[in-house]
Amino acid sequence: RLADFQHIQFEMASMATDLVASRLMVRQAASSLDTQSSNHVILCSMAKLFATEKCFQICDRSLQLFGGYGYLNDYPVQQFMRDTRVHRILEGTNEIMKVLIARELLPKS
Fold first, then answer.
1. Cα–Cα distance between 27 and 35 in angstroms, integer?
2. SS3 89
3. Rounded distance, CA 84 to CA 53, Å?
4. What is the pLDDT of residues 57-85, one digit of tens each?
5. Beta-carbon neighbour count of residue 35 at 10 Å?
6. Which sequence positions are flagged as catalytic?
7. CA atoms of 72 and 76, how far apart (whole Å)
8. Quick one: pLDDT at residue 13?
9. Helix (H/G/I), strand (E/B), else coil: 90
10. Cβ neighbours of 63 (radius 10 Å)
11. Under DSSP, is residue 1 helix (H, G, I), strand (E, B) or coil?
12. How remote is the C-alpha of 80 from its chain's centroid?
């Protein structure tokens, strides 16, 4: 079984950790938005940037584990890969998220 290989186990552990961290950041950002916190812009920007990047990396690593089968319509990883790629663009590109984060971090002159 593939799951018996330590490399696969380590990849799964890393991907699961990244996924949980992404979810926590998104939930914290949503909470800050709900409560109209003064730092909601930076938290939402950071959450979108982090979650979309990490989820794309998770799908990319998963696709690598599937090998050529990952590109087949028979396996959902190919659809996840396309879906996560577009989220790095929608609702403001990740580069724009970095601009928003930097604006909040740097002192206003």
1. 12
2. coil
3. 8
4. 999 999 998 888 888 888 889 899 999 99
5. 9
6. 91
7. 8
8. 97
9. coil
10. 18
11. coil
12. 12
* pLDDT value at residue 107: 83
Indicate whether 109 pLDDT > 80.
no
Distance of CA 79 to the CA centre of its chain: 15
* 20-59 pLDDT, tens digit each: 999 999 999 999 999 999 999 999 999 999 999 999 999 9
Measure the CA dihedral 2/17/33/97, to 10°. Answer: -80
The count of residues in the chain is 109
How many CB atoms lie under 10 A from the CB of residue 58?
Answer: 21
Residue 42, both tokens: 């930076």
Distance of CA 69 to CAs 12, 80, 90, Å? 18, 14, 28
On whether the CB atoms of residues 54 and 19 are closer than 8 A, the answer is: yes
Task: Give the tokens for residue 36.
Answer: 């109209």
Per-residue DSSP letter, 73: T
